[in-house]
What we know:
- The protein is built from one helix and 35 strands.
- The protein has one helix spanning about 160-165; strands at about 5, 15, 20, 40-50, 55-65, 75-85, 90-100, 100-110, 115-125, 130, 135-140, 150, 170, 175-180, 190-195, 200, 210-215, 220-230, 235-245, 245-250, 260-265, 270-275, 285-290, 295-300, 305-310, 320-325, 335-340, 345-350, 360-365, 370-375, 380-385, 390-395, 405-410, 415-420, 425-435.
- Strand 14 (about 175-180) and strand 15 form a beta hairpin.
Amino acid sequence: MLNCWRIVALTGLAACCACSDSTTDPIPEEPVGLPDDPPEFTIFDFDGYAGDQYVQFYWNSHIDWMPGSPIPPPLKEIKLWMSLTGPSQDFFLLRSRLGPGVDSTSIADLANGVSHYFRLTVHDSSDGVVAASRPIWVQPGPSIPPSIAIHVPQVLPDRATLQGNRNLDWSPDGKWLAFVKADNGEVANLYLLGVDDLSVKQLTHYTQGTLSSPMWSPSQDKLAFGGNNLSPLGWGARIWVTSLDGGEGQPIPNSFGDLDFAPCWISDDAILFCRGTSWAPNIPEFALVHLSDGIEQKLTFDQTIYKYNPVLSPTASVLAYSGYVSQVGGGILARSLWLFDLPSRHSHLLTENQYWDDTTPSWSPDGNQMLFASNRNGHFEIWSLDLVTREEKQVTRSPQHGFEILNAAISPDGSELAYFRSSSTESWLEIRPSEP
């Protein structure tokens, strides 16, 4: 700590490193994020790592000032606020400290399983709000240790690609996990993990291009995946299929789009996938190809919703996917979860986000729960959504600062949860009980 924190004692909260009492003024409702005219001072990487009845916070704030630009106002304090109501209302001041910089603090004696929302604000010498962080949403609770943890040197060189692609899939019999990794940041390939004996089998041996989003066929004799420039001939981003014997796979018929990605088996003969374009606005739509005759169907034409990571429900009638909507003036919403009804070909919004991204959905075997990765904590963790009650719960709690948890995949019998726990330099493929 560079400076002493001033603490506000609220019922049910135990404050650490107390120096003196502060006030309980409510947080200003505006700005929600940075002001319309962004100041030189900003808050970076406001993270909340939840544990058993506590949250540990980390952030990095500094003055980003360039010669010739307006001189930033004198900065006095950073304030930490909390709400039990929502991300933009009913905030109360918890702590304040003098000056910017890299810092951390913790709040203890929080109720497990209860949603807590936090924000940071930066104030000048007259106590005016210079900037405010995006709110974060955490639910304290115990961290369940993995029963299996396998070090993966690097799961794709690009961390944003890992956050945005579904790179982990259980076989229908629950004995294998298909996953993507790229040793030493080199070309990614497809691997199988035997869950019983922890054996690892490399299926593809590409030496160029990128590979992502493996998915098992219903009969478990093939895997589909997205591949970009895997062939020496180039061929762009296409959908590929390989057998369990390995090899380099073959592109499916009529996968000739500029940007075909994220395959999803509808049946052993039909693969649905996302098709983007190399020209603006590049809004991916759903297409479907029958492997036996190569007939293609275009399922969506809305050119409104950017669609990613489709996954079929256990009833085989609905797709879940992550997406966002283009806004007037060029702005976009944060990435949310959507449902797509196959018979009617209509989408409807499942989670509505202003501040966070919800990605890579995965169904529970009974179809009543949706697991997904979300950066509500300031970094990605796995959350669940009860499709009956609409209750949202934080499922994972990374125990280590700098790591986030991605690509949730629940086993076919519902007993185990697999995911990647990743930092900017390394990743672990972990499996743990799906419930405590």
